[in-house]
Design goal:
- The protein is α+β, with helices and mostly antiparallel strands.
- Among the domains are: 2-77, no CATH class; 389-403 and 423-469, no CATH class.
- Helix content is 64%, strand content 13%.
- The protein has ten helices and eleven strands.
- Strand 6 (83-93) and strand 7 (99-110) form a beta hairpin.
- The longest helix has 178 residues, at 196-373.
- It starts with a helix and ends with a strand.
- 9% of the residues are buried.
- The model is unreliable at 462-469 (pLDDT under 50).
Length: 469
């Protein structure tokens, strides 16, 4: 018996250990690790809310591990390797309405910045590299056209740093919305269909060549005309050149100033619109926040009111139910006590009746045997029964006078009694006569004492007293 119990306990322990190891193995298979060149996206049940209250549709893990609940959650990976996109912008209108061709290369990839990474999980999960590149190319095309439309060809061609900075700011802002990050921009060449850029280059080259030819001619003329003529011509030439240079510089500066003024005007207008839009958006956001806060306060007031009403009603209902249950319990207790007392009384009376019936039955059986012993005569049976009780009857007679202390009885005797006897003797005789004689008792029962016990002698006296000889 003990061996079987020990074997059962050992089997239970082993089963428990196997179950625990099985559960740990299942849990270990659901612990997913994320490599450093990928982002693991866990989606499905169990997602939490962001700090701003919006619903977080997925959980992003970079360079760590996460437990994925079976049946309720799924997971996938986003590749962090950089992508190079060839963007050949053709025929984009500049600020001067001159179409420009800007071939370029963009290097980008999925961002690991927390907020941007969440955007990538929501918008890029499940897309292959080609689809992501097409999406990024469309965004870059749109932003390049927008940037070119706000700049002059001179700015695009000469101020490359400013042009690239504008591209980086505008393009990366839009790429972050889909979870991408811009790493590098490389402008290979800038061309226009009208030849304006080429003309600008030719103009600059011609000016340089003319200046060089002019200098050579002046040097030759100075050598041939002499020092005086050379000096005169030199002064005239220098003055003329200076005048032309100043005129050219003034014209160029005027054009630059006009271009800067136009650019500042466009920038100011853009900044004004952006500021106004930002203020409007901020005001709308505050308005929505105030409205949501008001609705939340109203809902909280209604909830508190309902809670207070529910507490009062529930307490009253509980108290009412408690009183009803106590009354029912008390009534049930009274009913059970009454039923128990009735059952006890019934059982007691039934037992008494059965006992009395048993006694009477036994008495009847004994009396029947007495009758049979008396030869079938019921009178003889009664006499036999009474004769059996004579000893008790005599004892009762003796009991009646046994406690009388004769030595303490004082009798005031005046002498002879009326019948010639003494008063004291008559007192004792009368006291004994107060006890019913045994013969009288038998007569009342219809029996006669045997003669060997004595017989009654009648004396002719006034009181007809009987004595037993």
């Amino acid at each position: 018996m003990e061996l079987g119990l020990i074997i059962g306990i050992v089997a239970i322990i082993l089963s428990s250990v196997l179950i625990i190891f099985g559960m740990l193995a299942i849990l270990a298979t659901r612990l997913k690790k994320c490599p450093p060149d990928k982002i693991m996206v866990v989606y499905g049940g169990g997602s939490k809310n962001n700090k701003d209250g919006s619903r977080k549709t997925a959980k992003c893990v970079h360079g760590g591990a996460s437990f994925v609940w079976p049946f309720f959650q799924g997971y996938g990976y986003l590749d962090l390797r950089p992508m190079t996109i060839r963007v050949d912008l053709m025929g984009a209108l500049s600020k001067q309405n001159i179409r420009v061709d800007i071939p370029s290369n963009f290097t980008l990839g999925i961002s690991t910045e927390p907020g941007v990474m969440q955007n990538a999980a929501e918008r890029l999960r499940g897309m292959n590299t080609e689809h992501i590149q097409d999406l990024a190319r469309d965004i870059i095309f749109g932003q390049l056209r927008l940037i070119v439309s706000t700049m002059d060809i001179e700015e695009i061609n000469t101020d490359r740093e400013k042009f690239l900075q504008s591209i980086s700011i505008n393009v990366e802002t839009e790429l972050k919305k889909v979870g991408l990050r811009l790493f590098n921009v490389n402008i290979t060449d800038i061309n226009d269909g009208s030849g304006y850029i080429v003309a600008l280059g030719r103009e600059a080259a011609a000016k340089a060549i003319n200046e060089a030819n002019k200098s050579v001619a002046e040097a030759v003329r100075d050598g041939e005309s002499g020092v005086a003529a050379a000096d005169k011509q030199k002064r005239i030439s220098i003055s003329s050149s200076n005048a032309d240079a100043v005129d050219g510089e003034n014209s160029a500066m005027a054009r630059v100033s006009l271009s800067d003024a136009t650019r500042r005007e466009v920038q100011a207008e853009a900044e004004r619109r952006a500021t106004v839009a930002e203020l409007i958006a901020t005001a709308n956001a505050k308005k929505d926040a105030y409205k949501a806060q008001q609705e939340a306060e109203e809902a909280r007031a209604l909830r508190e009111k309902a809670t207070m009403e529910a507490d009062i009603l529930v307490k009253q209902e509980i108290e009412k139910r408690r009183v009803e249950l106590e009354a029912e319990a008390q009534a049930e207790s009274i009913r059970r006590v009454a039923k128990g007392e009735a059952d006890a009384l019934f059982l007691k009376k039934s037992a008494e009746a059965k006992g009395l019936l048993e006694i009477l039955t036994k008495q009847a059986e004994g009396f029947d045997k007495l009758v049979k012993a008396g030869g079938g005569n019921s009178d003889d049976a009664v006499k036999l029964l009474l004769s059996d009780k004579i000893e008790g009857l005599v004892a009762l007679q003796v009991e009646a006078i046994k406690n009388i202390k004769i030595d303490q009885v004082t009798v005031w005797d005046s002498g002879q009694a009326a019948n010639g006897g003494h008063a004291t003797a008559n007192f004792l005789s009368g006291m004994l006569k107060s006890v019913p004689p045994l013969q009288d008792i038998f007569k009342m029962s219809g029996m006669q004492l045997p003669e060997y016990l004595g017989k009654v002698v009648e004396k002719p006296q006034q009181n007809m007293d009987a004595t037993v000889e």
